[in-house]
Design brief:
Blueprint (H helix, E strand, L loop, with lengths): L6 E4 L4 H12 L5 H23 L12 E6 L4 E6 L6 H8 L1 H18 L12 H4 L5 E9 L6 E6 L4 E7 L8 E8 L9 H12 L6 E4 L7 E4 L14 H12 L7 E7 L5 E7 L15 E6 L2 E4 L13 E6 L8 H6 L1 H24 L1 H15 L1 H5 L4 H5 L5 E2 L9 H6 L8 E5 L3 H5 L5 H5 L5 E3 L4 H4 L5 E2 L2 E5 L14 H5 L8 H12 L5 E4 L8 E4 L7 H9 L10 E4 L4 H8 L5 H18 L7 H17 L1
Parallel strand pairs: 2-8, 12-14, 16-17, 16-19, 20-22
Antiparallel strand pairs: 1-6, 2-3, 3-7, 4-5, 4-7, 5-6, 8-9, 10-11, 11-14, 12-13, 15-17, 18-19, 21-22
Helix pairs in contact: 2-6, 3-4, 9-10, 18-20, 18-21, 21-22
Amino acid sequence: MTTTDMETKSFEADVARLLHMMVHSVYSERDVFLRELISNAADACEKLRYEAIARPELLGDDPKPRITVVADAENKRLSIEDNGIGMNGAEMTEALGTIARSGTRAFMERLEAARGGEKAELVGQFGVGFYSAFMVAEKVEVVSRPAGSEEAWRWTSDGKGSYSVGPAKPEDAPQRGTRVVLHLMEDAVSYTEPYRLERLVKSHSGHVPVPVSLVDKSGAEPREIADGTALWVKSKNEIKREDYTDFYRSVAGQYDEPAATIHFRAEGRQEYNVLAFIPGSRPFDLFDPDRSGHMKLYVRRVFITDDAELVPRYLRFVRGIVDSADLPLNISREMIQQNPLLATIRKGVTSRVLNDLAKLAENDAEAYGKIWENFGAVIKEGLYEDFERREQILKLVRFGSTTTGEASRSLADYVAGMKEGQKAIYFMTGDDRARLEGSPQLEGFRARGIEVLLLTDPIDAFWTANAPEFDGKPFKSVTQGGADLTEIPLNKAEAKDKPETPAEVDGFLAFVKETLGDDVSDVRASDRLTESAVCLVAPENALDRQFERLLSAAGRLDKASKPILEINPRHPRIAALAKLGEAEPDFRADVAHLLYDEARVLDGDRPLDAKAFSQRLARLIDRGLSA
């Protein structure tokens, strides 16, 4: 066969349908074509390396593997060349027509096998990966010379139904290996831009086990853009801080310094390398509704996806990579997600990140404090979502409280400072710290020197509703149920100034309860109020007041519970009202409703009935003016 004897063959399957399925179902971005072609090139180099163990003459005078990307913007061409094992004509027909010859049905069978966990490693084999080139190219040429052979071969196709294969002129082929030439579509010419190619290679293929060089203009010397050595497989002793920082910036797309670096290798039943970073500042998409992670998954140093959810959503701020030696090189994100090996990796990575955060919190409180300031609100989502690790996460959380200004109080610190007789960890939730600090519900706790955690993130109302405990101490909202403060003595100053409770108060409380009727579930004397006259709390078995508001606002609560109105029996105003007895019943009825509306306002709500409130207030003013 001469160099002009190209044989044209028809694909045995509907290539158009195959490509449509691949582009729209297998791959979500066009950029992956470069990853696939470089992966194929790396596989060819690795295959030659193993073959050369038995036949070292195959390497000739060119022993070092390499991949070269050549950009030719003028002619709208992009080439990927390797010096690997190479192919002859028969191997080209077999390798480049695998999927087409096996038909769409067989292809789908292999996809299903991969989805079921079998090692149907399609990426890295010429076939699906190779055909991704047609997402950007209107024509593809492959020229190859097998190692140890003088003959060269060419394969060409436009991907529309047929391909041609036959001998190539030796001078048109690499000395050894394969060159894939893409004749780019008009809307894909930007793939010849050097900066774009360099970015894609570094992010998607920068860590294949073969160096990658770039030639960005005719006659220029190749410029190495990936050295073939993955940073994460190196010993930590070999890596400088600036190397970590450069890698962090490339993988995270940020320009700050990482706040923490987590680098380890897992061995045993599962082998994988992890290089992860906690950013020094909040990523812009930290509170994106998708709450998706940003860890990249590699398999044997070949990029697979950055959408594999390698850490739970409450650690979505972590950036970095996981490189598995055991996962199959599956072609779709869906297949990867369903692989049981991934669950084991996810569990191991999550535990390590949490353990390293705990060590940092113990050894460098200032550094951990900055991380908590940026990501604490996200980490607390784990208290609601990850029951298995709740205890571990509780050790990491930091809070503001009535005794500390910043969110720096750990639960261990809180428990160590509990008062004699105190049985619970008290907290209050809301959306504004200043309003919480001024809440009447805190008065009785403050009078006894009891610390109350002030929780101002929306997630706080959710995780505290799950009745957690820490060190055997339950969490208790100060706006829910009884305060149970009688066993904890008042501060000396508070106890000294405590007035006697007038005998008439019990009757007044009964009157208020009767007057308010179904608006409240109960009216009772308060042991939590020392300065204010009234406050509202939730019944013991009802939802916390703030949690109830959030659910109501989200339309997830059909009916709100009726609150309890607590009245301070020692307050001068209450004492004076109680002494009025049954005189002026209309006035006392107005007062009962105004006390309830006052409690609602103090709790961050509006009066129950704005018009009625206005009328009662007007009558009260008129009474005062006429007195």
